[in-house]
Each structure stands twice: as C-alpha cells, then as structure tokens.
Amino acid sequence: MFLSHLKSKIFLIIFLLFSSVCKSKNDSINYIGTIVLESNQIISFSLKIKEKKGIVSGLSITNINQKDETISKITGVYFKKEKKIQLIETEIISTKSEMPLNSFCYLNINMNFKGILNQRLEGTFTAKKINGEECAKGKIIMFKKEKIEKVKKKIEKKYNKKNKTIILSSRDSLTINTNSNDIILNIYDPHKEDKDKINLTFNGDTLLNNYETVKKIKKIKLNLIKGTNIIKICAINYGDFPPNTSRIILKDRTKKYDIITQLNIDEETLIKIIKK
Length: 276
Description:
Helix content: under 10%
Number of strands: 19
Distance between the termini: 62 Å
Number of domains: 2
CATH class of the largest domain: Mainly Beta
CATH architecture of the largest domain: Beta Barrel
Shape: elongated
Number of helices: 1
CATH superfamily of the largest domain: Avidin-like
C-alpha cells in the first residue's frame, strides 16, 4: 500500500533489484523489489507471503525504512500452471505516515514468475482508494530475498577484505606480520580539523611530539628490525571535539592497513609489527 499524495524521491535501489527468496519456519516467502509509477517514480516494496492450495496470504511493506513506511494485509491467488499470481491489499496493519487513512491507496497486483527457478516476479498494478477512485498505476518487479542476501554477503566480504578499517581505543593493540624491510606510515585527521594532538613513538624513539593532526597527510618511512617493532600513539588532548582521533595508513610491500585511533587524554594504543 502507498499514499496517493506521496512525493518521494527516486531512489537508487539496485540492491533491491537483486533480491531473492527465503523460506522461514512457517513457510513464508520473502520478496523485495520496487514499484515504478507511470511518472517513473520508484518506491521500495516487499512481500512476505505464504501459499496453500493456491490461496495466498501475508503482508506487504511499502516505502521500506522511510518516514511513510506502511505495512498492509494482502491476499490473493496463485496459478501454478500459468506461473501467475494475483494479489490485493485489503487493510492497513500499521503505518508511520501521519496522513488520514482515507487518503491511502490499496494495490491490486498481477505478476508472472520469470527467470531460472522462478526467481523473479514481474507485472503491473493499479491502486485505488477505499471509494474505488484510482490513485495510480504502473509496473512492479520483485526478487526472492535469499538470493540478494547471498549476493550482498559476497560483496561485503570482498569489500571488507580489501577495505577493512580497524578501530583502536585505549589499551587496544594490533599485531601485523610482514616480510618487508620497511613500512610506510601515513597519519592525518580523518574528520574536521579540531586541534587533536598526539605523541608517536617507534621502537622507543619519538617521531612526533605534541603533533597536531590535520587533513594533510604526514608520511613517515619506518625501517624495521627483525622481530617485534612497536608504534605507540598517545593522546595529548581532546581537541575541540572528543575523542582524540587520528587515521593511520600502514603500507608494506603487499598490504595496506587502515586504522583509526580513538583516545581520551593520556590514553595510548599500540601497533606491533612483526618482521619475519
């Protein structure tokens, strides 16, 4: 269900357009996708339905996680031979919208199963108010949720593997193993410059004393000794906005380590580099 007066923005929801199906313990099936109005306005939409002997029942959610998110009861019929499904919203279960209920429109949906193993639903819809007045019409496309979750996890795993950010707070430590003879340390303020100051030592030698981190990157080459090398970062102040925050990028011959330190005054954190 959606509001006839709704003027939501067109969202880039490619994520939704790769969704797939998932069966829960009560045999409900989850689909997620989009409604496309004739004006090309795009609205997020999901279904949680179950089918028994051709009769379909469940819930629909429109404007997912938006200020006008609405959950509705939905019923319909599944035509197995024709690979079709007809659904209609019958009542509102809950809504975040403050608009009067008589301004809401109820969807009447006709969709066909598409793709390998019927992983996709495509079709059309019309929307009418309780008095029968037509509010809108357009197209609808949905995918099974299980598939999109698998795709999402693969993407996140690949991204995190390459771009993992490590947060270090007081008494935290990070250990890095390397075969490199040296490592490059870049340090800067990742947020708004707020006069954060630190001390940084390497193997007991002070490299930065009462240093104010800024947007401009400070680059330092560290020559490693065999065994354990220790970088210590200590917060001198809070700056204008606590906590004291620095971003450190460490690079050896093959890897990059993205680190953010978040410290209170006089707190410190350690980075141990083990040269093999």
